[in-house]
Design brief:
It is built from three helices and two strands, in the order βααβα. α1 packs antiparallel against α2, α1 runs parallel beside α3 and α2 packs antiparallel against α3. The longest helix is centred in the C-terminal third of the chain and has 36 residues. The protein is elongated, with a radius of gyration of 43 Å.
């Protein structure tokens, strides 16, 4: 193993590998001119003017009305639960639409969607409920008291 150091100047007494850089430039000058240094100007960023808009909040009642309206649409075949969910969706969506009309609130579209889903869910729920009561009424009169 050798003790070669590429950053060490070549010793004339120890001729080994060539030096990694020339020791002295010919004619005693630098290989390239030194660039002129310019004074550095401090850069100060100017902030953009920002208008202070109030944060808009989504009406929670409109969101709840829409979610309950969708659940009521899916469960229209459950006789009593769907009527409660449908009327709850209609009420919450209506209140959410009124709240969304106030300044600083959004969510009127979700309120409308919940209102439509609630109304559409109540109509088949009434049909299923009338059919449900009609079956029990027909069964009660056909059997009499003994059933």
């Amino acid at each position: 193993m050798t003790d070669f150091d590429p950053y060490r100047q070549q010793d004339p007494a120890n001729p080994g590998y060539p030096p990694s850089a020339p020791i002295q430039q010919p004619w005693g000058t630098q290989p390239y001119p030194v660039p002129q240094q310019y004074p550095v100007q401090p850069y100060v960023s100017q902030p953009y003017p920002v208008a202070a808009y109030p944060m808009l909040r989504t009406s929670g009642m409109a969101v709840a009305g829409m979610v309950i309206g969708i659940v009521a649409l899916v469960t229209f075949w459950v006789p009593f639960v769907d009527l409660v969910l449908g009327f709850l969706a209609i009420g919450l969506s209506w209140a959410g639409m009124l709240q969304a009309d106030r300044p600083g609130y959004t969510g009127k579209g979700m309120g409308i969607a919940g209102l439509v889903c609630g109304i559409v869910a109540v109509i088949p729920a009434l049909v299923v409920m009338l059919f449900f009561f009609g079956l029990f009424a027909a069964a009660g009169t056909a059997c009499g008291i003994a059933c």
